[in-house]
Every structure is written in C-alpha cells, then in structure tokens.
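Changelog-adjacent note: as of this version, every example in the card shows the full chain rather than a window. The one below runs 725 residues end to end.
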Amino acid sequence: MDDHPPPPSHEDNDPGPGTNSFPSDPSSNGPKPHTSSGGEQRMDESGAQDLHNLHNLHPNASNGLQPGGGDLGKSLSPSDLIEWLFHDDLELGNPGPGPSPERPSGFSPMSFLESMFAVSPEFPHSNTRKNVDENIRSALIALVPSLQYNPDFGVRQIERCLQVYWLIYHPQYPILHKPSFSNSDAHPLLLLAMIMLGAGLSPCTGTDESAVFQHPKALADEIAGPLRWLILSNSDCKPPARLWVIQSLLLLETYEITSTTRFLHERAYLHHGAKIQLLRRSPVLGGDPLKDEDEDGAYLPANHVWKKWVEVESMKRATLMAFYLDTVHATVYGHMVVLYAHQIRLSLPCEDELWEFDNVGQKTDSFKGLKTPKFLAALKSLLHRHKIPTSSFGKKILLAGLLTIMFQMQQKDLQLSFIEWNSVKDSWTDTISLAIDVWRVDVCTPGCCSTETSLCFAPNDRRLLPPMLRPDDSRCKFALYHISQIYMRITHYDYIIYAGAPSRMNVKVGDHEYRTVEHRILKWSQSSAGRISVVHAYMFLFEMLLSPTNEDITYTYDPNCDPFLHRKNIMASAILVIFAYNFSLDGPESALFDQLPKNTNFYPEKEDGYAYLRRVRRQLGQASGAPVETPTYVATSTSTSQNTPTANPTNPTSTVYHSTIRQHAENLPAVPHKHHLVGLLKVFFRMFEHSNWEVGLEYSRLFRNAIERSLGRSKISCDDMYSIQ
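Full-length structure tokens:
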C-alpha cells in the first residue's frame, strides 16, 4: 500500500489521474540531456521540444491556446498518440536500452524455428520435476540452516510445495519451462523460491493440506526472509546475470509484495530496481538479444536446438514478467514505474501449446509456421483497435503495455499543465481507455472471467486445478483490467487517504493534506470520470461475489485462499473506491455511532452487503436498459460478431462495450441509496480481519474505520491502521 505523492487536481470532465514524477533513468521519455559538439551536456529545452512535437501534430493548436483552458482543436488519434509517445526514440536516434530496429529483436526467427521443429526434443521424464531426494534437501538446508528444524521441510513436504507451484503459480505466470525442468539440475536458490511460493499458495489448492503441513505459511516466510540476500550475494548475481537469478528474484518479489509482512513488502519495492538494472545490463534489454541466432542457430547440433530455444524463450519471459510486475505494482500499490513500453523491443511469448510441449504423445508438425508478433507492433495495433492473437501470458503483457503508456501520458500531462492544454489529457485518456476495452473484448475473448483465456495449463492438468482456477469458475481472472480503468481516473493515494489512512510512505497525513484530497475526491465523484471508475469497481465486485446467471447465488471470498495473488489487493481497492464515491456525495448511511456501546463490534446496517450488490446490479441494469456486463453477456456479444473481420478497426464489438460502460456510468446517479455501505463494508471487514499477511490486516482496520464513519463517526483517521497486533 505504498504510494507516490499526491497528484495535481483532476479536471471536472477529465478522467486522467495525477502524475508520477519524471523517472531518473535517461532512457525514459522525460526531458533528456543532449550532448553538444563540445561534449557538454545540457537540457536543450527538451520539454519545449516535446510540446513542439505535439504542436506539429495539431496545426490548429495555436488558435486554441487560450489562458485558463486551451484547446487543440481536435482530439489525439491513436496514430498521433503513438508518434508523440515514441517521438524521442524515433527522431533523436535513441533506441532506448533495447536493441535498435536494425538488429534482430525477435527471439524466434523462422529459420531457427524450422531447425527446432526438424527434431524431437529430449526432455527429461516428468518425475525429475516431481521427486526430491535427501541430497537436494541437504543442499537447501545448507543455504538456510534453520529449515533443518522446520517440520514442514521434509522431502514429502518439499515435493508437495513444488507440486503446488506447478499447479497454481505456473499456469498464471509460465516463466519456467516445465517440460525441461529438473529439480536436481535447477539452482538450489531457484528451488527455494519455488518452494516458498508453493508453501504460500498451499491454502489455495481447495484440498485439506493438514495431513501434509503443520504451518506452510510460516515455512514460506522463513524462506523469504534470507532468500533475497542469498540471491544478491551469489557470484552469479552480477551483470550479465544468469537466468536463474532473474527468475528467483521474480518469484521472490511476487511473494514479498503480496503475501508477507510490511517489512518484506517494502523491501521488495526498494530492491525492484536492482533486478531491472541487471536486465538492462544483459543482452535481452541492454544489447543485441541472441545476435548469433540467425547466423549459428541452424548449425547447432540437433540435440542442442531445443535447449537453445528454451534458454532464449525463458529469458524473454523473465524480462516480460519483470515488466508486468513493474506495471502491476504501480497500478495496484501506487509504486513508481521503472520500465516503459517503448523499452521492450521483444516479441510476445510463444503460444501456450508450444511452451507446454513435452514430446510425450505430441508431434511438432502442428507448430510449424508459428511466429509471435513484436510487442510494440502488437501494442500499436491495439491502439488502432485491431485484434491481436496471443497466448494467455501475452495477454497479460499487452495489458501491462497499455498501462505503461497511461503512466507515460500522465508524465506528459505535467508539461501540458503548464500551458493548460487540458483537451489533450481528455483525448489520450479516452484513447487508452478504449484500447483497454478492445483488449477486454477482442483479445481477452470471451472476457476477463474466462479461465482458459487467462491460464496456461496442459490438458492433463485440468482435473487437478483448484476450484478457483477451474473452467467453470465464473469469477474475474483479469482483475488488473478493472483496476486499470479505475486507476486511470483516480489515484491509489487519493482513495486510501480519503478512507482514513494516517500516513503514506511513512509520511504523516495532516489535516491540510486530507482536505486537499477531500476536495479532489468530491470533484472526481461529480465527474463522468468518477462514475466510470465506480462502475468498474461495482462490476468487479459483481463478478467476484455474485453469480452471473442466478441472483440467489452468492460467493464467499477468503483472501488467504485466493490463488491470484494480486486480486485480493484489487478487491480492497474496489470497495474503497466505492466508499469514496458514495460517502463524498451522500455522506454516512446513518448517525447511530454515538449511540453504540464503546469498543463494540456490533454495527447495525440498513442493508445486507450481498443484498446491496444484487440491488445495485439490478437497478443499474434497469436504469440503463442493458444488463450490467457478465461473462455470459460478453460471450454472447462476441459470438454474434465472429463473422465480422477482426482486423477491421470499425468492428463495433469493443466500441459498443465501451459505450455501454459509459451508459451505465451516466445512469449511476439513478440508483438510490448507494451510500448504504455498512453491510458491504462489514462483509469486507470479515473477509480481511484474519488475513495471513500484514497489508491485508491493515485493510481490515481501514474497512472498520469506514464502517464507523458510515455510521456517523466524526473522526476521520484510522490511527491503528499500521499497528502490529
């Protein structure tokens, strides 16, 4: 729940959020030092040059430049946005940290693939990634000696942890090559990271693990504590870093950020940049990736071709995963972005079927001719509303790419705010918002609740999947979609402070800071941007807690058992956004707080939380004359347009969906009593009060604070939010 400083205020009709500060990395799209002929570095008015570039895109700009509110005369088209965003890299000859356009930047040239498909791979037997012996256990204990005395670190428990890793984490983030993985050949520190995640995810399997583990969460935390120092002090952790180093740091960061103590949460954020710098000083981001692949790939010995491909694809996936986590943590927690879309000069991940190919009962013939598009080309196509076929992991990367463009444009807004070109802000926000909806409808077909769209798993593993990962589970699998549409219009800082957080990033929030946030929240809630944000927050809760087809069926939710590690934080953000919107407009639900006994846990509500959600969904659909989006509705609407050319930018499916969201937003004020939130907040308080990670406990205290304020308590701050109890 770390955050960046508060942003400038939002325009009333402007859904753009506040801005981050300019990154210090010179490869970013902020003002850059230019070198004169004498070798001296100077800023050379790069900020003005950026605005000059935009002015050239809009010849009518000078006519609309009025004090107090300028107008460019027309909105930014996707082509304008792309040219402006990547102008510095293209015009100034700065290719960024990735390879230049003249160098081979795809990891799978057709000549290399043809050589690969000409032979069958010799992957090890699946038992090599399932079985663990005492030698492996002893090697792990030598790294973390205290594990010798942990009852959950026997051979049986280690094997179960690895099984859970492959069952739950790998389908979401397939960065390790499962068919060729061997426990005995893997680096012990990478194995420890996998065991840590498997132990942490063991409550998510849907089965009783008490016969195997006594306290698996304690095992995961015991590994996480020393693991970062063990990795960073290893001799392989230096430029250019070995693949296992990057993979281990990625697994550790995922766990530290989402599932541990505040100390480890903050430690992961502080060291995130070190991992990015290791990648910048490696061929994958800092040079010519696989410069010999066209020259030597065809001449590799037959049994080495697949090994070479696995190594290359694995490093590409690790890099894309680092990019994805950078974006997700910026969106969910308000952290600063380090990597931007234009710095990723790689192709998208290969197809899931190829990545999971294990040469058992399968042939390579079906893979011939497969070639993944370049990431930047796919991103530009999305902005032009073209459908991009890609793998489940590729879908995540494309959404992250759209979000980094959003972050870059927020930085551009700093420049525009000086001359008040606010219409540019309006237009880029709508362009990216629509592109994200194109991703939702045309790339993530049949929708963000589809398991098969969001996960990469082998057919044989389907029967082993836990309940929340099975194809018949209708809850949202791409929670990042909803929070991205929310974050575009309101910052994490604002809705956390408004709910009563007493400090951010160890900086105390005083009365003046709160009043400033309160003013921004009220302005946001009265705008169309605020209504769109809240519609997405409601939709996400509908998808997570209500059946899409039967109003009488509701779902319970336990954040400790959620296999999607970031989703629990997005759940918390959604209810806080709903609270901010309704409380700022309509105030508390009642004025009963002063009549309640001191230190009571009894909070009377006017409406049960689940009944509240059902009512809002029903009444919002009635007011709009269209059902609030559900997975079934999306599947129906997309299936009716299958005969329409998907590459046609006039394909109405995504634009109709985008317009429907806006229609719901315009009709949101027609739904009465939306501020009757005590019942829903109590549902969330009970969900999070037994969280097994500290940030979840902090959320629970903030929910209780919101409950009491909704009952009429005048005190705003949640003073015990960060207390360790």
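Structural remarks: Confidence is low (pLDDT under 50) at residues 2-74, 88-110, 289-299, 631-652.
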